[in-house]
Amino acid sequence: MTETRGRTGGRAGRQAARAAAQVERVAFLTRTMTPIEVLSEEGLALLEENADRILEEVGIEFHGAPDALELFAGAGATVDGERVRFPRGLCRSLVQATSPGSFTQVARNRGNDVVFGGQGTIFAPAYGSPFVRDLDGGRRYGTIEDFRNFVKLAYASPWLHHSGGTVCEPVDVPVNKRHFDMVYAHMRYTDKPFMGSVTHPDRARDTVEMARILFGADFLEQHTVVMSLINANSPLVWDASMLGAARAYAEANQAVMMTPFILAGAMSPSTVAGACTQTLAESLAGLAYVQLVRPGAPVVLGSFASSMSMQSGAPTFGTPEPALVLYAMAALARRLGVPFRSGGALTASKVADAQAAYESANTMQPTILGGVNFVLHAAGWLEGGLSMGYEKFVLDNDQLGMWHAFAAGVDLSENGQALDAILTNEPGTHFLGHPHTLANFETAFYRSPVADNSSFEQWESEGARDAATRANAIWKQTLAEYEAPPIDEAVDEELREWIERRKGSFPDSNV
Q1: What does the alpha-carbon distance between residue 130 and residue 169 come to, in Å, rounded to a whole number?
Q2: Distances (CA, A) of 247 to 235, 251, 336
Q3: Which of 100, 156, 241, 478 has the fewest other C-beta atoms within 10 Å?
Q4: Could you tell me which of 229, 288, 242 has the C-alpha nearest to residue 63?
Q5: Residue 505, Cβ neighbours under 10 Å: how many?
C-alpha cells in the first residue's frame, strides 16, 4: 500500500497532525451512570424462566463433541444422542458456582491491561471481514498487509483499548496457516490485549503456545492473556470446531466469550423477547460447558443480535429491536454475574456515508447506556461485517473518543460546578475572557480530529473535503508515522522460529 501523507498546511494538515499525535494511552472506559433498564425484575425473571424451559424441554445439541456430552451427563443432564436436556437451573448453577464476575486480561504492556466486568467498557476493532475498503482502492479482499495496518491503527488509537482478533481475513495467506501471522501481528505490532484464533481447535492451541512463549508458561497459567470469540451455531446448536477451540482456551485458563450470533427472524424468533430467551439459553449452555472443562476459567456472555429485512432477508443494523435485545441481555448478564459482550459501530452501509453514521450511532448508544463490558466491532465495520473500512475506522475511532467524554459523566468538583465563575461574572458579560474559561478551554470539550467546524469559505478554500476524505489523510499519516512498541528480541526471535517450524510441519491448505 502506498503511503500518502495528508496536506501539511492549513486545517487539513492540523487535523491529520493532531490525530497522528494522539499516542497517549487512555484507560478502558469506566462508566459513571447507572445502566438503562428496559425490563422490570418480573420481566427479566420471565425471560430466565423461559430460557430454563428451553434448556429442559428442547435442549441444546452439541455436534461432534463427545467430551461435552460426557461432561454434561456427569453433571446431571440428560443426553440423547447429541441432544442435551438440562434440569431446571442446572446451567445457571454451574456458571454461578465457579465463573469469575470479573477478570483482568493482561497486555504485553501492563499499562494496557483491561478489566472485564463491573462498570468497565473495553473497545476493540471490528472482526472477521473478508474484504477491506478505502477511498483509493475501493472494495477488495483483505491481505496480511491490511491486517497489520489495522493492528497498527488500533495501537495508535488512544480510544481503542484492545487490539481485537481477526480484524480482516488475509486471503493471501493459506487458510490453515494464516492464524500464525495474525496472532504474531497482535503480539509484535501492538502491546495491547488481543484475541486468539478459534477456527480450529489446533489453531487455538497454537495461539496458546505462542502466548506461552510471549508471556511465559508459568505466568500464563495464573493470568488471562488471550481472549477468544466462540459463536453458537444458532438455533440451539454448538458445533465441534467452536467447542474444541473453547476447550483449548479454557484448559489453559484463558478467556472464552460464548456468543450466540443471531439474525432474528431466521436464527431465532422475530420478537425481542424470543431472541433474548434463545440467546440466554444458548449462552448458559456454552458457559456451563466451559466451567465443566475448567472450573473458574474466565468467561464472557456474548450477544450479537441483528434484525433482518423481511423483504430481502438481508441483515439490518441500527434498528430499534436489536437495541432492546442489547439492553435486556446486558441486564440478564448482570443478574447471572458474568461480564457481557455486545454492541459496536454496526452498519449495513457499503461505504462510510450518512447511513453508516446513523446506524453506527444507533448501535453505540445502547452499547454505552446499556452497560456493555466488551465492545467488539467498535471501529471499521461496513457492509454488515463483510468489509473493514479504513476511513470508517478513523471516523468510528473519533466517536469512541466522544463516548469516553460522555461516559465520564457530570463533573461536580468545585471546578466543574463553576459557581465562583458565575458569581464573579457580571450579568450580560460573556465568559470568553474569564479566568475559569482560560483555565479550562483546552480540556472543556472533546476536540474531534476529523470534524470540520470552520466557515463555509474556509472549508471551500481548503478543498471542500468531506469527512471520509479527511479520514483518508488521517489513516495514511498515522501509518506513515507508526513506530512499533519495543519487544524483547530473544522472545521475538523464539516466536518467529517457533512459527516457522510449525508452518513447515504440515502442507498449505485452503480449508
Answers
A1: 5
A2: 21, 6, 22
A3: 100
A4: 242
A5: 7
